[in-house]
Design goal:
- The chain is an alpha/beta fold and about 120 residues long.
- It is built from 4 helices and 4 strands, in the order βαβαβαβα.
- About 35% of the residues lie in helices and about 15% in strands.
- α3 packs across α4.
Length: about 120
């Protein structure tokens, strides 16, 4: 892989306390942020070949907010990404075929933050 794009899901709603965590939707701010990210990605020419996404509703809605794509990527929903640690995320990324040019990973904190820090060579 030549390019890795990390995206934590957009802001989710806590309005319905009875909803299980994985079923929480995006709130209005989150939907606006996903649309802004779509525009920023277009302006920067960021177009993934592969999207790896958690099955949680908020990550799925974040992905929807990034659409439509100019060139539709392959999308893989992976259960292992739901609330994954940095090490688990890295293990998934290591499984990506070497011919894939660009990967977008949409998942959750704190694992996404920890992965970004780890890949940047920094400390928490």
């Amino acid at each position: 892989m030549h390019q890795l794009l990390l995206l934590r899901h957009a802001k989710s709603s806590w309005e319905d306390a009875a909803l299980p965590d994985r079923d929480r939707p995006l709130n209005k701010r989150g939907r606006r942020a996903a649309a802004a990210m779509r525009q920023a990605m277009r302006e920067l020419g960021l177009a993934p070949d592969l999207v790896l996404v958690s099955p949680a509703r908020r990550t799925q809605e974040t992905l929807t907010g990034l659409q439509p794509w100019d060139d539709t990527p392959l999308v893989e929903q992976l259960e292992t990404l739901y609330l994954a640690t940095a090490q688990q995320l890295l293990a998934v990324l290591r499984g990506v075929h070497e011919t894939v040019r660009s990967v977008l990973l949409i998942a959750h904190n704190p694992g996404m933050h920890e992965l970004a820090v780890m890949l940047a060579g920094g400390r928490r």
